[in-house]
């Protein structure tokens, strides 16, 4: 189940039409993970979850990225655990670090100003968010895939996944699937809404006429950002969207405005605003029956019959909801309601 792709020798993959329908029962799709060598054990745990609940029946590929070289141990142990083909790529320098238009002194001042908020003082976290916002699909290892499913270290899949999520997207023509939607910390997305509004004024041609922006925008006179976002640590989506001219224009506009460094914009609100503005709202999909846990929140099927059928083991989260089965979707700090409002299904 393993192939080592040598960074220095770009492998000539056959020309593949990314729109093509499946072969061997598999969609044209891959798992993707960005991780550090130190996260090996936490990542193996996540891989086992994915394999046990889904991939042992499908053997999809899995592409791993790192801003450093992966260690031999990492490559070996990960490859053993992935039932599909595991591929390892190093992120090119131009996608990880400061673009030349960023004032690094101002970036350092920002980290000092934001040191009391989670990751506020971190430089690498900002590189990570910018990479996940603007570049993850640009590595040659991703060239021939149409769909990806993002996985992080330390997550759990708590129910069997019977319907292949990639197939669900292709068959329904949808483009962006999520499990959790919640409010971002307002302090870290300062300026993101203003930059987005500027984009809307400058490039009205990219705004989808049947968009889902109500997901992210307050109603009424104010119309400011409500801080809702889809949690991007789980995403199953269509790479053609990220490869589109509209997305490229949106990312470049945000990047130039500097907020990845002069604030702490996450890739989750960036992806979320992009899909809410640039896509047809019917191309979004809530994978409501995918049991998924990324600390401290989880999604779990609401229907007890479904939970039984899918062998769910959704853990209690004692700090959040002592002693009871827990689903974040209908908690007050979930944005699922805003999603339904955006769809026009209050
Ligand atoms: P959180 O979910 O927002 O708390 O952030 P994480 O620490 O989980 O990071 C998000 C993803 O980026 C995870 O898959 C991490 O493994 C990965 N990641 C974060 N920082 C770095 C980094 O500096 N280098 C690499 N290679 N991966 C990183
Ligand atoms: Mn995480």
Automatic annotation (TrEMBL):
<keyword id="KW-0472">Membrane</keyword>
<dbReference type="GO" id="GO:0000026">
    <property type="term" value="F:alpha-1,2-mannosyltransferase activity"/>
</dbReference>
<dbReference type="InterPro" id="IPR002685">
    <property type="entry name" value="Glyco_trans_15"/>
</dbReference>
<dbReference type="GO" id="GO:0005794">
    <property type="term" value="C:Golgi apparatus"/>
</dbReference>
<keyword id="KW-1133">Transmembrane helix</keyword>
<dbReference type="GO" id="GO:0006487">
    <property type="term" value="P:protein N-linked glycosylation"/>
</dbReference>
<keyword id="KW-0808">Transferase</keyword>
<dbReference type="GO" id="GO:0000032">
    <property type="term" value="P:cell wall mannoprotein biosynthetic process"/>
</dbReference>
<keyword id="KW-0812">Transmembrane</keyword>
<dbReference type="InterPro" id="IPR029044">
    <property type="entry name" value="Nucleotide-diphossugar_trans"/>
</dbReference>
<keyword id="KW-0735">Signal-anchor</keyword>
<comment type="similarity">
    <text>Belongs to the glycosyltransferase 15 family.</text>
</comment>
<keyword id="KW-0328">Glycosyltransferase</keyword>
<protein>
    <submittedName>
        <fullName>Uncharacterized protein</fullName>
    </submittedName>
</protein>
<dbReference type="Pfam" id="PF01793">
    <property type="entry name" value="Glyco_transf_15"/>
</dbReference>
<feature type="active site" description="Nucleophile">
    <location>
        <position position="235"/>
    </location>
</feature>
<dbReference type="GO" id="GO:0016020">
    <property type="term" value="C:membrane"/>
</dbReference>
């Amino acid at each position: 189940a393993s192939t080592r792709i040598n960074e220095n020798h770009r492998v000539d993959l056959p020309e593949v039409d990314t729109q093509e329908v499946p072969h061997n029962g598999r969609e044209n799709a891959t798992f993707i993970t960005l991780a550090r060598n130190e996260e090996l054990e936490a990542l193996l745990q996540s891989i086992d979850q994915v394999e046990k609940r889904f991939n042992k029946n499908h053997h999809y590929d899995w592409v791993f990225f790192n801003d450093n070289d992966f260690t031999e141990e990492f490559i070996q142990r990960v490859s053993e655990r992935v039932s599909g083909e595991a591929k390892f790529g190093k992120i090119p320098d131009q996608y990880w670090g400061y673009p030349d238009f960023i004032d690094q002194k101002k970036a350092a001042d920002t980290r000092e100003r934001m040191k009391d908020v989670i990751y506020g003082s971190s430089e690498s976290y900002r590189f990570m968010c910018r990479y996940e916002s603007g570049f993850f699909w640009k590595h040659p290892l991703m060239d021939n895939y149409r769909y990806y499913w993002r996985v992080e270290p330390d997550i759990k899949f708590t129910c069997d996944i019977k319907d292949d999520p990639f197939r669900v997207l292709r068959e329904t023509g949808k483009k962006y699937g999520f499990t959790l939607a919640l409010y971002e910390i307002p302090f870290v997305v300062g300026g993101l809404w203003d930059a987005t509004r500027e984009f809307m004024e400058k490039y009205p041609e990219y705004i989808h006429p049947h968009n889902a922006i109500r997901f992210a925008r307050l109603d009424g006179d104010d119309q400011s950002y409500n801080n809702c976002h889809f949690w991007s640590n789980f995403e199953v989506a269509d790479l053609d969207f990220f490869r589109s001219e509209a997305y490229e224009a949106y990312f470049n506009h945000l990047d130039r405005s500097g907020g990845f460094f002069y604030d702490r914009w996450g890739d989750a609100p960036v992806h979320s605003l992009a899909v809410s503005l640039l896509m047809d709202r019917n191309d979004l999909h809530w994978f409501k029956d995918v049991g998924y846990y990324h600390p401290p929140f989880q999604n779990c099927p609401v229907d007890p019959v479904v939970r039984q059928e899918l062998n769910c083991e959704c853990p209690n989260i004692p700090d959040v909801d002592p002693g009871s089965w827990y689903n974040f979707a209908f908690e007050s700090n979930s944005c699922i309601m805003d999603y339904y409002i955006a769809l026009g299904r209050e």
